[in-house]
Amino acid sequence: MPAKHTHKTALQYIGLGLFALSLLVFTGMLALENYRLTEQDLLATMAPNPEAEGAGTPEASSTVSAGSSGGASDAAPESAPTDPRARLIYEVQAPAFREAATELRLTDQTFGSSFSFQDKVTEVFQAARERVDESVDELIANEELPEGVSEWDVRLSDPAYYTEKFAALTAAAEIGPVVDNPWLFFLLTIGLGVLGGILYILPKFGPHPGIKHDHIYHSQVTKGLNLGWRGFFLAATILGILLFGIRYMAGDWFWPAVTTAIGLLILGLVLWVEGSWHKTRVRAADPAGLSAYIGILAGTYLIGFYVLLYWTPAHVTPWITMVEPLKTALFGGTASQWFLYGLLYTLVILVMGVRMITKYRHNKYQLLRTGSVMFFQLAFAFLIPEILGALNKPQQDLKNIWPLDYDFFFGWQLDQFQSAGAVGIFMLVWGIVLIIVGVPLMVHLVGKRWYCSWVCGCGGLAETMGDPWRQLSDKSLRAWKFERWIVHGVLLAAILMTALTLYTYFTGAGSLLGFETWKVQKWYGFLIGAGFAGVVGTGFYPLMGNRVWCRFGCPLAAYLGLVQRFQSRFRITTNGGQCISCGNCSTYCEMGIDVRAYAQKGQDIVRASCVGCGVCAAVCPRGVLRLENSSVDAGYRTVPERVIHVSEEGVSLVD
Ligand code: SF4
Ligand code: SF4
Q1: Is 601 close to ligand 2, i.e. is its CB under 6 Å away?
Q2: 348-352, 467-471, 478-482, 530-534 — which one is most confidently predicted on average?
Q3: If you measure from the C-alpha of residue 215 to the centroid of ligand 2, how many angstroms do you get, rounded to a whole number?
Q4: What Gene3D superfamilies does the record point to (predicted)?
Q5: 515 vs 69, 311, 503, 505, 523, CA distance in Å?
Q6: Closest ligand to residue 606's CA
Q7: What is the 519 CA–ligand 1 centroid distance (Å)?
Q8: Which of 22-31, 293-302, 510-519, 595-604 has the highest mean pLDDT?
Q9: How far apart, in Å, are the Cα atoms of 78 and each of 75, 217, 485, 506?
Q10: Quick one: which of 190, 398, 410, 614 has the most CB atoms within 10 Å?
């Protein structure tokens, strides 16, 4: 392996050390706390008295409708309980929880970890559930169920639907150093991490800007894996998500099975029907030693972070406790895992945005674009929703557009918009206008880059934190074929799921052709909203490049791409005569576009997937590539002969 020249300064080593320390504390603090629950907290969370102060709020409501809890962002506010229903629920459930907790000793002992505490909570929940079932059976047998109250209002569902309640119990039970010193842990983790990152990045203002060919392929963190290992990690993650999905759906395997069947169908279509079984060998990037797995470890850490955050928030309560004082001081109220996530996401984009600025400070397009994603993340995705929440308005991210914002048309969301007065109606109209007019018009004028590379939060993270891994995107024709099947498949799924949602909203029918709306919503939120966009989309930066989600999964990118492909003025023009075939452009294209192949032929690049990041132009040593808007040939560009793919396998037309 060629010698590695990192040229790090002392300041950078200090920065790295501080960052590593912050990560260590951040991870280790999860094991520092103990958990001890009082009966009062148990009942206030699981079976609150409807006549007590504060009862009837979404947080205090005692029942959870099966389709409205436990997802990454599919938690729906519940309607206020009304007598006699709420009264009966309380009278049946409260004694059941009290007796089960006493019998199984939940409330008189201290648990050393969130895992042992959760095990006990689940055990108590199951015991309470049996007691509730017995009471309800008795009420039915004695015909004492009040009119207008269904037995299902009172019975408890599968524990899988109570993820957020269990997380609330864990938070109420938490005791230990983090609860006692939240600001200290905030400074030791997030504070030190930001400081370390800045110290590492600042010296980069010294040397020349731009890519420096300084052994990026040999950097242990960014070199990636060969195809076999990459396939292994991807298959293991997908399998893990599907198996966990069965548990998430409370043992219902129907949608995991449908997903598996669709996945196998796409695999068969691409590999056999479209003849892509044989693939050009990928650039050798097999890790040479143990240290080469640093990047893979980073990806695994990210995957673990997302799994805990999305699906088992009960195990990250110390992280939420740590940011609670900041949330209260800035916006009031209590912190949730989504406040923690928003804060971390924003800080990462800001810090790594500074890195992007140092790297491409010679390029005005990159400076403006990076400044733009930093601004939109800070203002639109973080500050404005938090301020709206403090004002008791819907916490809408006004730049998030359906179908990326997949729950925009969910019933609880539409109700929330309508009950929030003029502000809510504005949000609803704004969202619809963006989908119908804003997106097509802007893409027609300047391409999908206006959103994917200037505004979007997913794109913002990819362009800042993900930049060191952009060269890992697969440039093969086979990857392109997978991309088109999968991303358009997700768009179709989003459209069907939303159509079913609106059908239910306007007719009141809970299902259509046997497909239950809440289950379809729940599975989409789990699989696409959390699994694909979060776990795979970000966790796979070090494995498959920084735009895995944008390229293969984002339904909004698919919609933008269709408009860009057929109706946009945007293209990248190439001055083929100047090209020296160095390949920088293809290497650094995060969307896996073989830019050099177009440049060598002097052919305009008009690809649905191009996010207009402009990095291909920024790294070209000959000024061959230009991002332009022109109406001259907007109709002609879609004819097949203009889309030619050249690879070592030969030249082929892609229609
Ligand atoms: S072709 Fe260029 S502008 Fe388009 S995504 Fe690739 S690197 Fe970015
Ligand atoms: S277009 Fe520029 S970066 Fe791409 S191969 Fe040609 S000279 Fe190199």
Answers
A1: no
A2: 348-352
A3: 19
A4: 3.30.70.20
A5: 19, 24, 12, 15, 12
A6: 1
A7: 38
A8: 22-31
A9: 9, 52, 37, 19
A10: 410
In the chain, domain spans = 34-175, 570-653
Which ligand 2 atom lies nearest to the CA of residue 600?
Answer: 6
Q: What is the pLDDT of residue 51?
A: 77
Peptide bond into 325 cis (omega under 30): no
pLDDT of residue 576: 82
Q: Tell me the DSSP string of 19-30.
A: HHHHHHHHHHGG
Q: CATH number of the domain at 570-653, out of 1.10.443.10, 1.10.8.420, 3.30.70.20, 3.40.640.10? A: 3.30.70.20
At residue 143, the pLDDT reads: 85
Look at ligand 1, atom 5, and give the residue with the nearest C-alpha. 610
Contact 234, 540 (CB under 8 A): yes
- Ligand 1 center from residue 610 Cα (angstroms): 5
Give Cα 202 to chain centroid, integer Å.
29
Ligand 2: residue whose CA is nearest its atom 7: 579
Measured between alpha carbons, how far is 517 from 506 in angstroms, rounded to an integer? 13
Distance of alpha carbon 501 from alpha carbon 495, whole angstroms: 10
| Average pLDDT of the residues in 212-237 | 68
Per-residue pLDDT band for 300 (boundaries 50, 70, 90) equals confident
Contacts of 258 (CB under 8 A, 6+ apart): none
585 CB less than 6 Å from ligand 2?
A: yes
Give residue for tokens 């309508």. 418
Q: Three-state DSSP class for 407?
A: coil
Q: Atom 6 (ligand 1): residue with closest C-alpha?
A: 589
Does residue 435 surpass a pLDDT of 60?
Answer: yes
Give the pLDDT confidence score for residue 303 in this predicted structure: 87
Predicted ipTM of the assembly? 0.96
Ligand 1 center from residue 297 Cα (angstroms):
28
pLDDT of res. 71 = 34
